[in-house]
Design the sequence.
């Protein structure tokens, strides 16, 4: 019997030219119940410039994601209360920018079925545990566009992105579309520096008002823009 087949051409992932080892300003969330593993991962990420946060299980991770935004999540597989697969599914269903965050699954499980379960849940890539710096570096290299998806690449880009979000916010408020207005504010949130206490308080106040279907004052909105540009 002769079977006709088509030969497939092997492809090589295209790497971005924008990659840099210095990832300062990006926020990473480590979801890991083993304290020693979490400390090692924290050291690796801080060495690359990340601001690092830790959640002991999937449930705690979702609590953090309900109030904060991240550029990267390192997701353990086996955890008490809520494992990595269930947590990832919940994250991908969030109604905020966190739903599209880059998620790297971390597992010591050698079974292909385990890896596929994590991928099917929404993990972007799997890294074997114990995590090696080179493997982590390669993953960040391949996914740099998604890693930096919320980071303006220049001052002009920053101002253009901010202007677009402010316009969206203004139109949404004029139409009393509070959900859309809240989404615009959530887009603005990662553009505000964490150490800007006054700006952070103002942002939280505006978010609270929008969640209560209230229109923030023009002075508050103008002040928020000032805080972003200073």
Sequence:
């Amino acid at each position: 019997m002769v079977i006709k087949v088509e030969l497939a051409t092997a492809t090589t992932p295209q790497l971005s030219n924008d990659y840099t080892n210095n990832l300062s300003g990006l926020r990473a969330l480590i979801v890991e119940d083993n304290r020693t593993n979490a400390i090692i991962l924290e050291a690796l990420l801080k060495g690359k410039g990340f601001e690092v946060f830790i959640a002991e299980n999937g449930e705690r991770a979702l609590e953090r994601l309900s109030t904060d935004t991240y550029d990267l999540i390192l997701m353990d597989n086996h955890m008490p209360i809520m494992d990595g697969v269930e947590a990832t599914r919940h994250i991908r269903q969030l109604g905020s920018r966190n739903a599209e965050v880059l998620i790297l699954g971390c597992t010591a499980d050698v079974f292909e079925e385990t890896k596929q379960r994590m991928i099917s849940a929404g993990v972007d890539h799997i890294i074997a545990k114990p995590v090696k710096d080179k493997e982590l570096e390669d993953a960040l290299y391949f996914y740099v566009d998604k890693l930096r998806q919320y980071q303006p690449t220049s001052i002009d880009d920053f101002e253009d992105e901010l202007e677009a979000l402010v316009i969206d916010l203004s139109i949404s408020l004029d139409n009393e579309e509070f959900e859309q207005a809240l989404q615009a504010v959530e887009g603005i949130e990662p553009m505000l520096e964490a150490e800007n206490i006054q700006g952070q308080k103002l942002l939280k106040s505006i978010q609270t008002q929008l969640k209560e279907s209230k229109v923030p004052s023009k002075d508050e909105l103008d002040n928020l823009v000032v805080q972003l540009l200073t």
User: Anything to note?
Assistant: Residues 27-147 form a domain with the Rossmann fold fold (CATH 3.40.50.2300). The chain has two domains: 27-147, 155-229. Residues 1-20 have pLDDT under 50 and may be disordered. The radius of gyration is 20 Å.
